[in-house]
Hints:
The structure holds 2 protein chains of 2 kinds. By secondary structure, chain A is of the alpha+beta class. Chain A is 53% helix and 15% strand. Chain B has 26 helices and 22 strands. Mean pLDDT of chain B is 87; it is low at 1-13 and 484-490.
Amino acid sequence: MAGSDLYTGTLDVLILKALSGGAMHGYGIGLWIRRSTQEVLQVQEGALYPALHRLARRGWLDEEWGVSETGRDAKYYRLTTVGRRQLREEMMRWTRYSLAVTAALNASPA
Amino acid sequence: MKRRFRLVTPFRVRPDVAGEIDFHMEMRARELIAAGMPPEEARREAAARFGDVGAVTAACEATRQGQLRERERADLLRDLWQDIGFAARTLRKTPVFTVAAVLTLAFGIGANTAIFSVISGVLLRPLPYEHGDRLLTVTQPDGATGAPDMAFSALEVADYRDRSHSLDALAEYHSMAFTLLGHGDPMRVQTGVVSASYFDVMGIRPLLGRTFREGEDAKGAAPVLVLSYEFWQHAFGGDPTIVGRTFEMNDRVHTVVGVLPPIPQEPDQNDVFMPISSCPFRSSPQMADKREMRMVNIFARLRPGASVVDARRDLTATSSELHRAHPESFPNGSRFSVTASLLRDEMTRRARPTFLVLLATAGFVLLIACANVANLTLARRLQRQRELAVRAALGAGRGRIFRQLMTESTLLALAGGVAGLLVAIQLTPMLIGFAARFTPRAQEISIDWRVLAFTFVVSLACGVALGSLPGLADRQNLVSGLKDGSAASTSGRSGRRIRGALIVSQVAIAFVLLIGAGLMLRSFVNLVRVNPGFDPERVLTARVDLNWTRYDSTAKVRAFTNALLARLGETPGVVAVASASSFPLNHVQPFANTFLIEGRFVPKGEPQPSADAQAVSPEYFTALGIPLLRGRVFTETDRDGAEEVAVVTAGLARRYWRDREPIGERITFDEGKHWVRIVGVVGDVKQYGLEQEPTAGIYVPFDISPVNDLRVVIESRGDPAALEQRLRAATRDLDGMQPVTEVETLVRLRDDSLASPRLTTLLLGSFAALALLITTAGLAGVITFSVSQRTREIGIRMALGAERMSVLALVLRQGLGLVAIGLVLGVGGALLMTRLISGLLFQVRASDPLTFAAVALVLLMVGILACLAPARRAATVDPTIALKGA
């Protein structure tokens, strides 16, 4: 189900990253994640939405209705100041984590 | 900012989430179509990639609902804060109303807080003993004479200890005065004589040192003392090195081993405690071995889970066994039984009825206060009708306006509560002094968390009650409020009815309270006027409790007493001086001495005649002004060795001789070993309290039956207090080691015995006066307001030719009509309520017609006064102005 193929918390950091360039609607965020991960991460696309609402509730995202590029009403999400700080922290943590795992995988077994 | 957001996009969860998902699906399908998929397939594919729409929607909604609740909570807090700020501003804008309302509530809540602090400290708190709720006092009443407690002998104590299964532990106790030497002047100390286990049974831990150890009450154990906290503070200034100090008592050296914490003591306020082995009487062979030598009380602790009823059953069974096994140890014709009651009830038995009456009274005062504030609020609300109507028109919901009004009244009540707390804090020291006359637990009274919680709850309840008054946020009123001047006429009827009902209930309650106070006052006046049978004026009394170890024979006591009386008799200004074993209003308990009359036979099972006997010297009757009715009083010749004589009270003569003459008859107190001839009859004396019936008493000559615990009464020509120095000097000259205590004028003792009814009357009277004041102000306010509302109507009447007098009568009739209805209801209420205080009354019936008539008259007069000013204003209304204006 939601996020089953993703490492826990990965979806959150990807959403924050997607929004670091400016406000986007849910579909746009999903599209960005698919493109930038070269569609490697296979997710149920619906899993994105509970995550968006959760982040909004934590105060990391602001939400606002606007008009989309196709002329339809769409809900846009935007990083708050807290969300931006959170993104920095998550990115650092992720880098440390992946470096550590990479280093371990490259080392020769004892 | 959040609020703006909410106004533009109101929270509609489902459409919000659904819209978002629809948008996603559509965009995804477009993307797939653009990549070359047929539209139908593209839509299916988009849905498949999205996953379970229902589950996603539900998850989003759950998140948003949580958020919604948080926001609502924040909104609520902010609204409340806004409401409070707004209420405070509104109240500040009408300072007269606010101050009047807060003051009224402050008196009402303050009175309740103060009285509740007494109830809480005395009746609600657990005893400050470890097992306070399981402690019992065990008593042995005599059904034949009605004596409440004949006490127990040492052997009986042992039997009850062994045979009572429902009791955990049992300790014996009695209290005597001894002389303590080794710290300045000789001190007469009240001494609790107890078994070594007493403090453990009672669950009292020492503040300093220790209490008694097992075996310290055994014969031959080294004498030890435990000091009470009060005595330690008072006599030794709280000396922390007191433990280990030694004092001489009864010719033996006693070592202080501990000091008690401040605890209420029952039944005596003892200065020191000693184990039974140290008491020269309790350890005498007579006391230790004779079943009929009853001198000690029993305290016991219930076994966990056992009830007082279990204990009583056990004790009664043992009592019957003892009656069967030792019939000779019970006096002829007596009906001894044994019972037990909880110590905490016993400590507050005298206090409970008075305190509960005071609490009820305070509650009534609060009701009146609330009714008054309600009336003020209603009047003010009418004047604010336009404001409220405008706010309603501008979109404030009814709920919102209701909440606003509720906040206002609650704020008002809480302010009243805070002010009331200040009132209560002022009253507390006075109330502690008052309560101390009823219970040893008075020192536990304080404004503690319980009292604070009570005040808070009462204030809150007042606020809510005021805020939810009917007709305040009335829809009709709000609508009609916009139609300008018509407001008064439409809202008038229901508003007037509520205001009238409030005034009627105020008058009714005030009537009940005034009746209560009036009855107490009548009762008090009766008490002051009652003929006590003696004349307390210009009499000095004192206690010269001769040290038992040094005055160990009647000859020594007799020699000292005669020498002292001779010296005092020579003093200029002394009219009469006498020695006595007791005197009126002294705190000595009555003691029924049984006797037999010569030539009369008391059938088996019939109670023997009994009387309260006192030993007095010849001038006793002169000094106290007790009238001689027949025969003679004692003379100098009625001394040791002469024929034994007695003087009886008129009451005793009536009871046992009816219309026959007792003078010349002989009686015996010891079944015929000594015969005593009656030589005189004197007037009845209220020996044990002005509110009590005179005691049937017998007087015997002091010289024939001297007692160590000697009382001296001196009648003076002038101020009796001036004789104190002379008495002390005369005693010191005779014996430098002999303390003189309890030096008091008899007038002061009389006043002291009136103090608790006087204070109760004063308290009830103050409450009633407060109630009357508040009610009067309320009535005046309501009538004034109604006149101002009816100015137009009155103007029309006058324009149509109404006389000024008839306008005056109109207003008076309206006011007094309310008072009259209130009076009728009040009479009913008073007849129901005053039964509760009938136990506190002395020679007044609870339905005393004089009091009822007087109170009704007072209320009526006050009612007229309250209506007169507004009525006169109404009568001077200028019709032209009234019709143009308004």
